[in-house]
Every structure is written in C-alpha cells, then in structure tokens.
Inverse folding.
C-alpha cells in the first residue's frame, strides 16, 4: 500500500490494532487451556470410579441407582463433546416406562419412576389407562408408592380402584400442577405461612424448579432456610441453610444447591426446542466444564467444606504479593548488576560475577530454602529470621502498626528463596542485552559528541538494553508460581502453592482443578501484559507490524 | 597481541576448563550410577564363604545369602577363620535398614561407621546418595528424550509444512507454555499418582515438549529458506529427504543445548517431586531431603543430598553452556532460551 510504514492510522492507530490483535490471539489460547484442564478433570480417579466405592458394590437396583446419581452429579452420564440425545423430564419418564417391560431393567425403572414422584404422575396414569389389564399391576404399585410419598389423601384407594375413577381423580388433581398454582404455593412456603409446606409436598418434585428459582432469587435468610428445608425433604439431597452459620458456610450451601441443580435440572423440567438444540453443545461434559470455567466456579471443596473458588480467592493474593515482591527485588538488583557486568565485560570480576550467578541459577529452591532455615533460622546457627507463616501472633494481638513490620520480617526468607533464581536469569539477560547495545553505532556517536560515560550507559544504553527484560517479565511468572509450591510449603505460608499440596494430599479434585486453571489464566494474563508492554517499549515492533500490514 | 585479546583467549580457555570440568563430573556421575551396586551394597563384590566362591553376589543375590549382609558375613568370616570377601566401598544397601540385624530409628550424623550419617529409619545416607545418582541421571535422560522426540517431530512438521499444521502446533505450544510446568506435573501426579519411576519420567516428558518444539520450529523455518535447501529441492529431493537429511541436522545444535539444560531441570523436577512426597518410589536425593523434614535438626540429610543435586545440575548447566558457546560463539552470554521449562 502506498501509505508508507506508518499507514493510514499513524502510530496510535497501529498500536490500537496491535493491542486488539494480541487480545484476539488470547481467545484460542483460552480455549486450549480449557481443553487441557478438561483432560485433567477426566484423569481424576475419584470421578471416573464414581465416588466412594460405587464400583465395588453389588450391582443391585439400589446401588446402580446410587452410582447413577454420582455419575449425574459429575456429568459422567453426558457425552464428551456433542449431545445428540438431550433428555428432559418427559423423555426420561417415558424411557423408564419402556424399561419397565424389559425383565433386566424393570426393577431399576420402577425405582426411578417412584423416585420421580409427581414428575412421572401424568405419564404413569396415562400408561395405566392404556395398558392391558394384565400389565396394570406394576403400574398400580408404582402409583400407590408415589401417592404415599406425597401424602395424597385416599391415595391407596385411587391406585387400587377402577381405571375410570383414577382418570377422574387425575382430571381434578392435575390443576394443582399448573405453573401459577405451583408458584403461589412456593411463595406461601417461602413466606412461612402455616400449611404451605403440606401444599408444596403434594406438588412434590414438580415444585423443585420454583423452589430453586426462589432460593436463588431471595436474600432473606429465613426464606432460604425454609426453602432448603423443603428441597431437602422432597429430594433427599439434604443440605440445609442455617442463617446463623458463618458466611463461607452459607455461601457453600447455596453453591451446593447450584451444583445439584445443574446436574438435576433436566430431571425436573421439560426443555423447549431451542433449549434442546443448545443442549447439544452445553449439556455435555466439556460444555459443563467450559461453563464452570467461565463462571470461575470449581464446585465444592471436599476438605475445606467451602467453595473451591472462595478458598483460591483467599489465597491467591498471598502468592501474588510474594511473587511480585520477589520479582521487584530481582529486577531492582539485576538491572544495575547486568549493566555493570556489561560495562566491565571481559574483566575477571565480570567473569566471576557471571559464573557466580550461573551457580546461583543451578541451586535447587527447596535446598536453598532448607539451608537458610537451618543456618539462618536458628537450627545450626544464629536465629535471625522467622521460618514459618506470615505472622507471629493473631492480628488483634499486635500493637498498632507493628503487624506490617512483622509481616515484612516473616517474608524476608521466602522472598529471597523465590527471587534468587530470577535474579540470576534476569541479570544475565540484562548483561547480554547491554553488551549488544553498547556495540551499536549510536552509542559510539553519543560518546563522540562528548557525553559522559555515565550518561551514555545509563541513559542511552539502558533505554534499549532493558527491552528484552520486559519480555522476560512475562516468562518469569510460570516459573515463580512453580517455585511458590515449594517455598510456601517449606515456610508454611497460606498461599496457592501450599494449597495445591494440601489439595493433592486430601484428594480434593475441585480445588486442584481450580488452582491449575487459575494459575494458567494468571500466567496468560502476565504474558499478555508483557507483550503489550513490549509493544509500548519497543517502537520497532509496531513499525514492523504496520509495514507488514501495509504491504 | 593486545591485552584484551589475551584476556579473551584466557577467558575462553577458562570457559573451556569449566566445560571440561563439568564433562568430567557428568562422566563421574554416570560411572557412579552404572556402578552403584558395586560402590554401595549390602553384600560383598566377591565372596568366598563356606567353601563356595560367589562372584558379584551383590548383583546376583544368591538364595543362600538371603539372610546375610556385609556385617553378618564379616562376623561369620572372622569367627570361622576361613573364607574371604571383597566389600564394596560403602558396605550398606540404599534400602537396608538393619545392618547386622540392628535397627536404629534415629537419624544419626556422620561417624566412622556411616560416613555421611543415617536417615530416620537407619538407612545409610552415602549409600542412598550413590544409588540416587542412578535415579537422577535416568530421569534426566529419559524424560528429556521423550520430550525432545515429541518436540522435534512437532516442531519440524510445523516449521517445514507451515500453514494449518504450523498454526495448530504453535497454538498447542502457546497453550502448554501458560501452565507452570512444575505445578502441572505436581497436579497430574496428584490426580493419577504415578508413583513408579517410569510414570514420573513420562509425566515430565509429556509436559515439557513445548519449548523444544518452538525452538525446532524456528530453526527449521530459518533453514528451509536457505539457498542450499532450495538447491536440494531443485535437484528433485523429496520433502522427507530434505527435512531429514538437509534441514534437521542443522537444527540439532540448539536442541542439544536445550536438551542438556533440560536434563538439569528434569532432575530438579524429580527431586522437587520426591521432596514433596510425590516422586518415584526409588532411593532419590529428593526423598532423602524430604526425610529431613520430619526433624529439621538432622541437617546432614539436607546438606549432602542437596550438594549432590546442586553439583549434578551445575555440571549439566555448565556443559550446556559450553555446548552453546561452541555452537554459537557470538551469543555466548545468551541463556537457555527455554529456561522456564
């Protein structure tokens, strides 16, 4: 294009397009991250064997039903990527009715239909009416059990009476399942009106979608308590909301119901055609995982009895702060060191420093951490620094202002252990970058026009010599996060790294998946940031791009 | 010759000296690893006992000596007065907890009996160090071999074929590089609990290919545009022939450097895993240091294995740097490009 290297947009426009481009390039990377973490989820042994001992039990209808529930909770009943058979309430009930005719599956189907209670009522009555008299026995038995569960007055007589009486009963009764009636009953129950729980019990599982909707819509603690009570009574999934419990626990209860509903929604509802179409993609194992990932919802931590995301959110700042401190320290020391080395390159002192840094780079982190604890933490030498945790006392026990000092005191050794390897790498990069720059013509020009050496090196030289370090900034992050596992474990710091180890020891898959996803996202964000800084720091990049785009 | 010229020659020599020293150390470690059973074992190397001559019973483990070790044999030989034995330098096995039937459940510092001390179940530290060399070198070699092969194939295909293949591979590399490698390995270990040595090597191998792949892709992209490759194409060479005979051999230099650096990192990963308790079920240096965590006052369990790891990693790193200098003297100050892996 004739517009020349700066193009139609000028440098500002080119920059904006570059930034946009970098952001767009992050999308496929995010997709890849979700695929890798999804593969990891499917590695998790606790989920593939179906929880606690489901596989080892005798395969009766009861244990098969339990195993099925576990599989549904983890979405293992769903296809991996595409679901061409999206089931909803009606479809499941009709399938169970068909299974009733097969001797191999009839026991399980009967249990399923009884468990479905009012969800199956319409189809069961219709099937009873249609069926030949000889096949009605099992259906009558199912109906009787359902009516018993929901506490229907005279239910036994209905189930055993003549078919036309049953039909008449159903004509009168079906009105209680109309959406407006159900909603009103749920509202009365939430408000705590006497007798409302009986009405809701008669609607039973048909009321679950409204109960759930109301549970997430309201923020009145008493309503939440009554709604979870009703849901637990109806579904047998007992998770109760206690208004006096700590906040984390209350959040956890709501989260558990959300998880439950995600797995059970299609059991309790009929889907529209559009929902069925979308379900081809969303009602799959990968679709579920992507959904959870995008909401930052990693489910419940088995060990902490809290939302995994909450625990991670609590611990991530600790790790980030320590790593940031280590990074700043490493850069503050290594930039002057690298420049000094480059200026004095070839002298024995430079060689000694360069070799020494290389030696530093080869030291294993956990060993260094243990050595500083042994020789600086008071085991075989002076007791200079604390070696465990971030604080000596509880926060309220500090005299004013001293807690920050104590925190700094506690972070000396961990930050040192995190930063020394970065220090070695960054200063080597800085030296290499400076060596290259100091050989450039423009530096000779600067010297020739009489500028002082300090100005030449630290102003003109450093300006370009520091550019590679910007890029390095992004690359440090995964390395630091990896180091955090070891450093935090050894120094007993409540960060993401020690959490990882704890989660592995406790087989807390949800926390592990959260940690690995979050660290990948943090790394990606860091790389993106370094990339953008690079574009800003090095005008050559945007010029290259614009001439590329213009040609 | 000018002063700075001499200085640079001196410097280069010095560097070579370091590289040579590193090579010597790696060779020594290799010898230690190969001969670990003859350096440290609970049975003698040659033994004449009750009229039978046993050659290398430490390797063959004859059934007749099942209830013996160096100490019971030494006692027997001294009391009967007949027979003789050649004992290994360190007369303990790496997993031997009761030399001569005595069980000691306290970690002991170095003494005349155990030069470098014992761990918390009475195993000799020196013997474990010698056998740990085997684990460390094996892990470094096999894990790196796995990911170099994967990286080489993917990188070569991406760089040579370009187009969609390149996009796909580059995407995979970008994704893999967003995962902190050690953390990823740790999580995988936690999920599948691959406690076998081979399991650990495979996990390290499968997570480390991205750096090599990126490196090879870049080299292949650069080389395939050179005139001599064009000449080969003009002479009618097939794609496979061009790639395998003309392009890849010239791309191997940087790969060798990356692989040598990689062996050092793989050893660090393995020892780190063992230290955290998720390493292979083998006498590893990391496992020794983990044992020191029970009681941090037993410093000899931290210092000696740590030194072994450090010296090994340092040797590999110096070797890699020497290799890099030899291959690319203009960029001698440059770093392991993929040091993050």
């Amino acid at each position: 294009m004739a517009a020349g290297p700066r193009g139609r947009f000028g440098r500002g426009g080119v920059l904006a397009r570059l930034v946009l481009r970098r952001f767009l390039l992050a999308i496929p990377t995010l997709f890849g991250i979700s695929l890798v973490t999804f593969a990891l989820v499917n590695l998790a042994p606790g989920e593939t064997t179906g929880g606690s001992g489901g596989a080892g039990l005798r395969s009766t209808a009861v244990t098969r039903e339990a195993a099925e529930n576990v599989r549904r909770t983890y979405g293992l009943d769903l296809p991996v990527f595409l679901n061409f058979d999206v089931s909803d309430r009606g479809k499941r009930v009709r399938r169970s009715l068909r299974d009733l005719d097969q001797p191999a599956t009839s026991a399980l189907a009967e249990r399923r239909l009884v468990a479905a209670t009012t969800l199956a009522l319409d189809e069961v009555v219709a099937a009873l009416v249609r069926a030949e008299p000889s096949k009605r026995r099992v259906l009558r038995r199912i109906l009787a059990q359902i009516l018993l569960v929901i506490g229907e007055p005279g239910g036994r007589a209905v189930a055993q009476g003549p078919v036309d009486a049953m039909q008449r009963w159903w004509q009168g009764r079906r009105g209680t399942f109309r959406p407006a009636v159900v909603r009103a009953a749920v509202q009365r129950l939430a408000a705590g009106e006497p007798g409302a729980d009986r009405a809701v019990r008669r609607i039973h599982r048909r009321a679950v979608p409204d109960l759930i909707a109301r549970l997430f819509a309201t923020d009145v603690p008493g309503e939440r308590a009554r709604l979870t009570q009703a849901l637990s009574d109806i579904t047998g999934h007992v998770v109760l909301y206690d208004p006096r419990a700590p906040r984390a626990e209350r959040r956890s209860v709501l989260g558990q119901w959300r998880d439950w509903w995600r797995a059970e929604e299609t059991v309790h509802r009929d889907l529209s055609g559009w929902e069925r179409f979308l379900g081809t993609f969303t009602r799959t194992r990968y679709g579920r995982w992507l959904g959870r990932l995008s909401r930052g919802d990693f489910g419940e931590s088995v060990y902490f009895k809290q939302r995994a995301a909450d625990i991670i959110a609590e611990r991530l700042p600790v790790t980030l702060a320590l790593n940031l401190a280590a990074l700043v320290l490493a850069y503050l020391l290594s930039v002057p060191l690298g420049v000094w080395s480059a200026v004095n390159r070839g002298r024995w002192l430079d060689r000694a420093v360069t070799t020494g840094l290389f030696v530093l780079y080869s030291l294993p982190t956990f060993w260094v951490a243990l050595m500083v604890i042994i020789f600086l933490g008071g085991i075989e030498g002076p007791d200079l620094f604390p070696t465990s945790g971030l604080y000596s006392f509880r926060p309220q026990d500090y005299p004013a202002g001293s807690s920050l000092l104590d925190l700094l005191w506690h972070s000396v050794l961990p930050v040192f252990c995190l930063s020394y390897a970065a220090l070695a790498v960054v200063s080597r990069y800085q030296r290499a970058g400076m060596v290259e720059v100091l050989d450039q013509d423009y530096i000779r020009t600067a010297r020739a026009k009489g500028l002082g050496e300090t100005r030449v090196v630290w102003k003109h030289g450093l300006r370009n010599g520091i550019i590679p370090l910007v890029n390095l900034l992004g690359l440090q992050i995964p390395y630091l996060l990896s180091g955090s596992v070891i450093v935090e474990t050894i120094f007993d710091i409540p960060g993401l790294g020690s959490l990882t180890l704890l989660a592995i020891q406790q087989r807390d898959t949800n926390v592990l998946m959260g940690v690995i996803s979050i660290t990948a996202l943090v790394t990606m964000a860091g790389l993106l940031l370094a990339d953008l800084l690079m574009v800003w720091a090095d005008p050559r990049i945007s010029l290259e791009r614009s001439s590329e785009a213009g040609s | 010759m000018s002063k700075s010229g001499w200085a640079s020659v001196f410097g280069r020599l010095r560097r070579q000296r370091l590289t040579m020293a590193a090579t010597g150390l790696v060779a020594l470690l290799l010898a230690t690893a190969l001969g670990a059973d003859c350096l440290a074992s609970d049975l003698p190397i040659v033994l004449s006992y009750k009229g039978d001559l046993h050659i290398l019973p430490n390797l063959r483990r004859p059934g007749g000596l099942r209830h013996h070790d160096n100490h019971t044999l030494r006692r027997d030989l001294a009391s009967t007065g007949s027979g003789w034995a050649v004992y290994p330098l360190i007369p303990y096995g790496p997993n031997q907890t009761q030399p001569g039937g005595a069980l000691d459940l306290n970690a002991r510092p170095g003494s005349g009996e155990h030069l470098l001390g014992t761990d918390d179940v009475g195993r000799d530290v020196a013997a474990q160090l010698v056998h740990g060399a085997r684990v460390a070198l094996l892990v470094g070699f096999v894990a790196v071999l796995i990911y170099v092969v994967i990286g080489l194939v993917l990188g070569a295909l991406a760089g040579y074929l370009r187009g969609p293949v390149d996009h796909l591979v580059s995407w995979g590399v970008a994704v893999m590089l967003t995962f902190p490698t050690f953390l990823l390995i740790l999580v995988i270990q936690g999920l599948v609990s691959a406690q076998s040595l081979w399991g650990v090597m495979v996990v390290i191998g499968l997570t480390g290919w991205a750096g090599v792949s990126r490196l090879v892709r870049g080299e292949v992209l650069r080389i395939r545009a050179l005139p001599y490759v064009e000449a080969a194409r003009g002479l009618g060479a097939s794609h496979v022939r061009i790639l395998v005979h003309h392009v890849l051999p010239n791309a191997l230099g940087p790969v060798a450097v990356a692989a040598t650096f990689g062996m050092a990192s793989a050893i660090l990963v393995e020892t780190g895993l063992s230290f955290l308790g998720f390493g292979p079920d083998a006498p590893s240096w990391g496992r020794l240091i983990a044992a020191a965590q029970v009681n941090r006052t037993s410093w000899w369990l931290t210092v000696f294995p740590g030194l072994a790891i450090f010296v090994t990693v340092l040797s590999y790193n110096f070797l890699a740097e020497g290799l890099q200098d030899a291959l690319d003297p203009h960029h001698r100050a440059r770093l392991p490009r993929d040091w993050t892996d």
Summary: The radius of gyration of chain B is 25 Å. Chain B touches chain A through 56 residues (CB under 8 Å).
